[in-house]
Amino acid sequence: MPSDNLDDLFAHNRAWSAQMERDRPGFFTGLVKQQTPRYMWIGCSDSRVPANQITGLEPGEVFVHRNVANIVVHSDLNALSAIQFAVEHLKVEHIMVVGHYGCAGVKAALNGTRIGLADNWIRHIQDVRDRHHVMLDSLPEDVRADALCELNVAEQVVNVAVSTVMVDAWSRGQKVTIHGWTFGVHDGLLQDQGLSVDGTKPLEPQYKAVVQRIRYKWSTPAALAGDSGTETPAA
Ligand SMILES: [Zn+2]
């Protein structure tokens, strides 16, 4: 049973700090000088998806931004500021947008469940749902949330890619690649969704290929045989 005593957290923290110092003498002294992460993680706030633990990265190795359902909104100064700091100051080489299966935000968006203020936030995922409603409606009901999780990741990779931060970085010749990943809470495994954007190739064909791959992945053979695969064009 988890304890309500917050002293436990401090006790664990002291033990962890001491263990780190035993295993890696001077570890924290090194961290004080500078953080030099090669990676930026944009993920869901869900407590089951901790960036460092999943990837085996230590403090100082991954710059993290998390919000409900890993959304990057064009005008979200919080996310954009984090991306700008990561790209322009920390010079990260890879940005991973990481969705996760079983995401409550994605499920609420799919089903139109009212939560509260967050309804307005996950409205962005409902826009993704609506854009791909032909595909989603054609899928078996029990896989739609997983498919929308992947579609949302693809959409947010595009949103990062078209941000002024990335457009400017690539125009300067900076090498930064944006990746779309998903995480399985049920098995602890990451999956690369096959969308890696580095500013050298047109975005639209890459996005369309991933959407098509998602459709093939989740469709039943019968649906694929009888379906034209047409999608509602993006607004
Ligand atoms: Zn989530």
Q: Which descriptors would you attach to this protein?
A:
five-stranded mixed sheet; alpha/beta; Beta-carbonic Anhydrase, Chain A; 235 residues; binds zinc ion; 5 strands
Q: How would you describe what is shown here?
A:
- The protein is α/β, with parallel strands linked by helices.
- It has a single domain, classed as Beta-carbonic Anhydrase, Chain A (3-Layer(aba) Sandwich), CATH 3.40.1050.
- The chain is built from eleven helices and five strands, in the order ααβαβαβαααααββαα.
- The chain has a five-stranded mixed beta sheet.
- Helix 5 (104-111) packs across helix 6.
- The mean pLDDT is 93.
- The chain binds zinc ion (ZN).
- Zinc ion binds next to helix 5.
- Zinc ion (ZN) binds at residues 44, 46, 69, 100, 103-105.
